[in-house]
Amino acid sequence: MTITITAFDRSPDGGKGLARDTRVRWALEETGQPYAVRLVSFRALKEPAHLALNPFGQIPTYEEGDIALFETGAIVFHIAQHHAGLLPGDAADRARAITWMFAALSTIEPPILEFANAKLLEGDKPWTRDRMPLVLDRVRVRLKQLAARLGDAEWLDGGFSAGDLMMVSVLLRLRASGVLDEFPNLAAYVARGEARPAYSRAFQAQLAVNTRP
Ligand code: GTB
User: Fold this and answer.
1) pTM higher than 0.90 for the full model?
2) Residue of the nearest CA to atom 13 in ligand 1?
C-alpha cells in the first residue's frame, strides 16, 4: 500500500530540514519504506480537505490505505511498530525506546518550542530582552539532564531507536542558537544522528522540495 505524507509546499526554513515532515521521512528511510509526498500550501492547510486529515491544519500527515494519521509522535510510532529497524524486539527494551520518544516530545521539545516561538513570534516585543534568558535557561535545565543521562553513550538506550530519531529531530531545532554546543556530548549525539544515511536521504528529499525553482 502506498504511503503518502504531506509537507509544506515551501517550508519557511528554506530547506534546513526543521519542518516536521523530516522526522517522518527519516523514519520511513530507516525502515526502508517507499513513500509519496503531497505538498500543501499554507492556505490549503486550513481548507476542509486537509482539516479532515489534521484538525489543527498542520503538516505532516500520513495516509496508508484506510489509515490517516497526524502528529509526528503517532506517525513515527506507527511506522516503528509495523516495520523493523526502529524498535528493539525485546519487550522491556522496546518500552524504554518508546519512553524516549515520549520524553523527546513531552519533556524536551516544549521548552525548545517556547524558545523558538519567543524568537520568531515575539522577538520584536519589548519584554523579549528580559524574558529570553529565562526561556533559554529552561532549555538548558533539560539539556543538562539529558546530557548527564547520555554521558558517553552513542545512543540513549542501547542501539539507535525511534527514541533517538525523535530526540535528535527535536534537538536539531536548537542548532542555530549555539546552545547545543554548550553540551558537547549532545552536539556529538545530534551529529551522529545526522550522519546516518537514512537521515541524509530524508534531509536531501526535503531540501530538493524547498530549493526547487
Ligand atoms: N505536534 C505536531 C506534530 O508533531 O506533528 C506539530 C505539527 C506542526 O507544528 N506542524 C507545523 C505546521 O504545519 C510544521 S512543523 N505549521 C503550520 C500551521 O500551524 O499553520 C513546525 C515548523 C515550521 C517551520 C519551521 N521553520 O521554518 O524553521 C520549523 C518547524
Assistant:
1) yes
2) 58
